[in-house]
Structure formats: C-alpha cells, structure tokens
Amino acid sequence: MLPPGALTAFRIVLASASPRRVELMRENLGLEIDVRPSQFAEDLPKSDFADAAAYCRETARQKATEVAARCCGGDEACGRAQLVIAADTVVSLAGRVLEKPRDESHAAEMLRSLSGGEHEVITAIALVLVPAERGAPVREACVAEVTRVRFGDLSDSVIDAYIKTGEPMDKAGAYGIQGRAGAFVTSIDGCFFNVVGLPLSRLCAEIVLLLGIQQAREGGQQ
Amino acid sequence: MLPPGALTAFRIVLASASPRRVELMRENLGLEIDVRPSQFAEDLPKSDFADAAAYCRETARQKATEVAARCCGGDEACGRAQLVIAADTVVSLAGRVLEKPRDESHAAEMLRSLSGGEHEVITAIALVLVPAERGAPVREACVAEVTRVRFGDLSDSVIDAYIKTGEPMDKAGAYGIQGRAGAFVTSIDGCFFNVVGLPLSRLCAEIVLLLGIQQAREGGQQ
C-alpha cells in the first residue's frame, strides 16, 4: 500500500489500454493517472527467453521504455517527475505460454486445457521514473509476480456459453477471473489482482522502493 | 460453474442486503435474482459454537430459513420452485471472530491486528430449496468455505487514510478486499470471492448438488 500522498508530486502514466488496469489504478489505488497505451509490437520471440516470467518481464520493460521515451519530450514533457507503469500478463500451463486467443475456437481450446487443473498467471510490471530535469538519471524497476490458479471441471456447454459472452477474447488464457469466469476458479495461491492484470500490493511495494531510493539519493546530494 | 439454463425454472432469492453479494450474483453468475434481506437478528452467542465456521454456518442457516418461511406464503408465493441463498462472512484471527466494526476506533484496532500477518476469512452459504407444491419436502444445504489471507505491514497513516474512505465500516474485519484494501493483501490461499462475501465456485457446486439430488429423486418417483 502507498503512504497517503506519496505520489502527489508525480505525473503517473499507465502504459496500458487495459480497462481492468485503468480501473485498478483509479478505483483500488485511488490514483490520478494519464493513460498512454504502449505502441510496442509485443512480438518478442518466446524461444529467446529462459521461461515465461523472463519473456513477460521483457515485454513489460519494452512497453514502459517506449512510453517513457515519448513522455520525455514534446507535448508530454510536463515539468514534473513522471512515473511510467507498464504491465504484461500471460498464463503459463506446463511451461507453455498462453496469451490472448486468436479466435473463438482458440479460446475454447485454451479453456479446455485449463479445465480441472492448475496453471500459473504471471504479470510483470515495469516502472520507469523520469525525473523533471532533462538529463537527470532515469530509474527503472521490473519484476514478475506469479499466482497459481486452480480451475474446476468445465463442461463443453459451460465453455460454449462463456465464449458467447465475448469475455474471453481480449484476455490472456481466454478468461477474466473478475467476470463470469470467477466461478470457474476453485482456489488461488498468491495475489488475486495479479490474475486480473496488476499485482496491487507488489506494485505499491515496488513504487515505494523506487521512490525511497531516489529520495535517499536526493537527500545525500543536498 | 452452473450449466447454462440450470436455474431458469426457479425463482432465486438472495437473503442478503450486501451490494457486493448482489453484484456477484447478477454480474459474475449472470443470474436474475430477487433480493429479500433477512431480518434475523444475527446475535447468536459465539460461545455456543465449537469454532468460527460453526457459528458462521448457523447464522447463514438462520438467515436462509427466515427468508424461506416468508417466501412460502402470502405475496411471495410465486407458483415456481424457489431457491433461497443466504451467506454470512466473518474474519477469524487466532481463534477470535471479527465481524463488522462498531466504530472507527474499533475498525483501526481490527486493521492493526491484521497488519503484517495471516488470518482466515470464512463465508458460510445456506441454501433452501422450496418446492412449488405446498407441503412437498424442502431441501437444505449449508457449508462454510475458508480462505487464508496475508496482509502486508500497514502503517498508522495508511490505516487512518483507509478509515477516512468509509469503506471499512460495513465489512467483516473492517476491510474490503475488492476495494481500496486490495493493496493491503500480499497473497491469498483459497477462493477470492469468498473473501468478498460469496464463494462463487463453491456456491455453484452446492446448487448443482442440491438440484441434482432432487432431480434424481423425482426421476425415481416416476
């Protein structure tokens, strides 16, 4: 959790178009944010990475870096320090990475593969702290949080009805735990909001750490 | 999860005034419900029960029974079978039951006691299936689901700021995991929606069981 007023002096930029992440930042953390979706292509070759978490971290880092570069100049330079926050969420099932489904039949295949078993949801968050003064050092942090999720058995008719709601199509692993798929999940081990797309407690801890380090340095320079 | 259309023939009555439970039933389960808050006093002596789960189950059972009795006659008799659903949520910390806080200072005391440690959230659900025919046997089920919740360290200033939001006052344990307190929670083990106030997956499984048993019996009588 963030100390009250900790971010008052900063412009906070969410480098994500996800309405869930926007809502979590505004409603659950109570932060005023500007939304600047990243234009990063999200096409890193998975085989270049040791595991799903490493792939996810690098995607989040690229998104944050791309948006931070835009925030440093032109119309976006605001005279305040800026905190850019990006995130990337994937589902990992027995070492295989599931992202957003291509189409309804791909969504059904994903849901059948998750039925009755356990998988991991990984969200990486990348933070870039852009100082107000041009040329002053930029600070970065990038971490991945893992939540284990257990599904009950899903019948074909339940999967078909769920796909008809349209909910799976823009979501990693083809489900939204905060929506109609909430009843699919018998238990989780870890952070719930990580499964939604933004690990709130971890995000706050990383922000405090990033600001704390900077504040300590500024103190040392006085 | 419920098979599509499983409850079409039933009137579903939620015996709870909780806006969170209403939203979970309507938005997450997609059910049409009538809301009939229970008038049960919720004053059972805790010392009469072996543990928090037993206390919680009996409170949920009393709520469901009271509402079901009203649904059987007068204006509420609707000619359809009715499924009455009640729930009760408590926080259990080292054997002590925390319910809704009495006032802000009680809420602060509860939150300080939860800071930096693990507690259990118990939600009991009670179902009463009232048949359409007067005098036909009523069926009941009552179960409790437990979720372990771990909090990060909460400073006094964070607790004060949280209490000022007003969010804690109508909630067991003085917090709402789905709201501003989401960032307090580093991890959970179990069902997230159980902490919100209604264990969706377990509720669906119990409904299927209750209806399944009845359908089997009806089959046997033909």
What labels would you give this structure?
alpha/beta, seven-stranded mixed beta sheet, homodimer, 6 helices, 222 residues, Maf protein
Name of the top-level CATH class of chain A: Alpha Beta
Shape of chain A: elongated
| Assembly level | homodimer
- Count of distinct structural domains of chain A: 1
Helix/strand structural class of chain A: alpha/beta
Query: What is the share of helical residues of chain A?
Result: 25-40%
Computed Rg of chain A: 19 Å
Order of H and E elements of chain A: EHEHEEHEEHEHH
Give the number of DSSP strands of chain A: 7
* CATH fold description of chain A: Maf protein
Largest interface: A-B, 39 and 39 residues
Q: What CATH architecture label of chain A applies?
A: Alpha-Beta Complex
Describe, in plain words, how this protein is organized in 3D.
The structure is a homodimer. The first copy, chain A, is of the alpha/beta class and about 220 residues long. Chain A has one domain (about 10-220): Maf protein (Alpha-Beta Complex), CATH 3.90.950.10. Helices cover about 35% and strands about 25% of the residues of chain A. Chain A is elongated and about 55 Å long. The interface between A and B is large, with 39 and 39 residues. Strand 7 of chain A pairs antiparallel with strand 7 (about 185-190) of chain B.
Helix-strand blueprint:
2 copies of one chain form a homodimer.
Chain A: E1 11-14, H1 19-28, E2 34-35, H2 52-71, E3 82-93, E4 96-98, H3 104-114, E5 118-130, E6 139-151, H4 156-164, E7 185-190, H5 192-196, H6 200-221
Parallel strand pairs in A: 1-2, 1-3
Antiparallel strand pairs in A: 3-4, 3-5, 5-6, 6-7
Helix pairs in contact in A: 3-4
